[in-house]
Amino acid sequence: MHYETITKLLNLPNVIVVNVPDCKDGNLHLCVAFSDDIAPPICSGCGAVHTSIHSRSQVRIEDLPSHGCRVFLYLEKRKCRCPDGGIHTEYLPWLHGRFTKRFAEQVNRLTAITTNTEAGWFLGLDDEVVYRIDRAILQEKADDLLQPTPAPKTMSVDEVAWKKGHSYVTNVVDIDKRIVIWNHDKHGKSVLDAFYESLTEKERAEIEVVACDGARGFLSSSRQYAENALIVLDHFHVKSYLSAALDDVRKQELTKAKRDKTQEELTGLLHCKQRFILLRNKPSKKKTQVLKRLEELNEPVYKAMLLKEQFATIYEPESF
Fold first, then answer.
1. Residues 6+ apart with CB under 8 A from 129
2. Among residues 147, 217, 242, 303, which is most buried (max CB within 10 A)?
3. Separation between Cα atoms, residue 269 and residue 298, nearest integer Å
4. Which range marks the domain in which residue 81 is found?
5. With a threshold of 0.90, does the pTM exceed it?
6. Confidence class of residue 320 from pLDDT cuts 50, 70 and 90?
């Protein structure tokens, strides 16, 4: 058996094939060892090189399939006692748990075009194993992209409910790049504080615009850390605030109209069943008619409607 040829085909750094047992299961089993066993191991706990070896244990590692056969490697990994505490196995850059890194990346590519179940069927793995491998690879890629935190010039921040029970995720988006650059599984001022503190003082000073929903925590945090930034409230929440203010005026005038028996028409126009006509953003035939009649019957509500619509034009492109 030409083990040197198989070693070259295997192409793993510092690893040689020492035996090829026949397990008669249709898979390819390779017993491998380190070509330079004298080199001290790198601790997976602290990342330092340790000269003393505590023990050895054999592990089975799955590699990319070859010629329709699943490939399994049997390797004795070294363990070292870490000065920081505990016993850790050595770190191997080509290894991803009980799989080679190239095999894990293949799983990640497959899950991008098909389901975990179908990818598992193709590779002979349980779909739960496929899920764990894919999740770990995605986490590594996310950590590489977000360390250190990208510094935005213009940014927006918002909180999103992702499941029942008031569970929120706070997302920070780079507006220029249109990508999420940071997130956290909670919300509030302390969360946004953590984002700003992950930036340098110079990076915080260079932030030009912060868009948010007007939450007090976000406003307070942005004023504290992004002192040079222009804070912009997003149009969705501003229109929501304007509608709430208009509705407050409607309720006040409706209460007055109900006390005056001569104001039955006004009471009908301001009734809660009519409020959706008043509050809608897009002009309609009914809204135009109501607006004209309110101009004659009730000045406060009429002015409130005009102010709401005029203020909302700030967010229209033609106004810039």
1. 120
2. 242
3. 10
4. 1-93
5. no
6. very low
